[in-house]
């Protein structure tokens, strides 16, 4: 019988009680160990779904909403350039030559703001400063296209360019009418539950 795999909660508790000091560069390398494998899994899942010669694979690092200190990596694919956001990496996949290339890697919001405000950064931060500056200047896609010599559309550009095709395929145009305001008269005191009161039933 195989040994029981520890849950994320158990691993988080063990990590929280660990007083060892780790080299941040080693931690960074450990985080990236299997990124290429995960990119390949994502590519294989989307190769036949996305009917474009090239598409983007996005890796997002998010905090677990239930377990403090646990980070999760989410991988997904889009047929357009995704909207940039902190803690995001984006890669371009070309079906013709089965090649993956990095488009951008954005750190957390604080780091982005810090390096963007700096007038000088170390050589290894120059590329990331360029991405951060373009993000805050509102010229991110222009910067990425010029940097990599590509003309891939952003999400809004792609949806507008393929609007008729998408509607024909069954996608519905959202109703942009003004939403009805919430009727607060429907709330009564008896319907509000005090979460601190124990329920015995």
Describe this entry's structure for a reader.
There is one protein chain. With 201 residues, this protein is an alpha+beta fold. It has 8 helices and 4 strands; from the N terminus they run H-H-H-E-E-E-E-H-H-H-H-H. A 4-stranded antiparallel β-sheet has the order 2-1-3-4, with helices on both faces. Helix 4 crosses helix 5.
Helix and strand content put the structural class at alpha+beta
Radius of gyration: 23 Å
The largest β sheet comes out as: 4 strands, antiparallel
Counted by DSSP, the helix tally is 8
Strand content: 15-25%
- What is the typical, i.e. mean, pLDDT? 81
Distance between the termini: 40 Å
Query: Poorly predicted ranges (pLDDT <50, ≥5 residues)?
Result: none
Strand order of the largest sheet: 2-1-3-4
Query: Looking at the structure, what is the overall shape?
Result: globular
> What pattern of helices and strands is seen along the backbone?
HHHEEEEHHHHH
Count of individual beta strands: 4
Q: Roughly how much helix do the residues carry, as a percent range?
A: 25-40%
Short characterization:
The protein has helices spanning 8-16, 24-32, 35-46, 109-117, 126-137, 140-148, 155-161, 163-168, and strands at residues 54-63, 71-78, 88-94, 99-106. It is of the alpha+beta class and 201 residues long.
Topology:
Blueprint: H1 8-16, H2 24-32, H3 35-46, E1 54-63, E2 71-78, E3 88-94, E4 99-106, H4 109-117, H5 126-137, H6 140-148, H7 155-161, H8 163-168
Antiparallel strand pairs: 1-2, 1-3, 3-4
Helix pairs in contact: 4-5, 5-6
Properties at a glance:
single chain, 201 residues, alpha+beta, 4-stranded antiparallel sheet, 36% helix
């Amino acid at each position: 019988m195989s040994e029981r795999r520890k849950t994320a909660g158990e691993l988080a508790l063990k990590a929280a009680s660990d007083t060892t000091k780790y080299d941040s560069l080693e931690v960074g390398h450990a985080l990236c160990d299997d990124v290429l494998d995960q990119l390949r899994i994502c590519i294989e899942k989307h190769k036949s779904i996305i009917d474009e010669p090239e598409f983007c694979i996005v890796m997002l690092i998010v905090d677990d909403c239930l377990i403090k200190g646990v980070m999760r990596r989410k991988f997904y694919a889009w047929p357009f350039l995704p909207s940039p956001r902190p803690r995001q990496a984006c890669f371009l996949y070309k079906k013709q030559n089965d090649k993956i290339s990095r488009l951008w890697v954005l750190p957390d919001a604080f780091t982005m703001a810090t390096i963007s405000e700096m007038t000088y950064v170390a050589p290894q931060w120059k590329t990331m400063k360029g991405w951060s500056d373009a993000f805050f200047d509102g010229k991110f896609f222009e910067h990425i296209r010029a940097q990599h010599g590509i003309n891939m559309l952003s999400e809004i550009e792609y949806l507008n360019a393929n609007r008729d095709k998408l509607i024909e395929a069954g996608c519905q145009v959202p109703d942009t009418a003004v939403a009805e305001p919430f009727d607060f008269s429907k709330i009564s005191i008896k319907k509000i539950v005090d979460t601190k009161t124990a329920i015995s039933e």
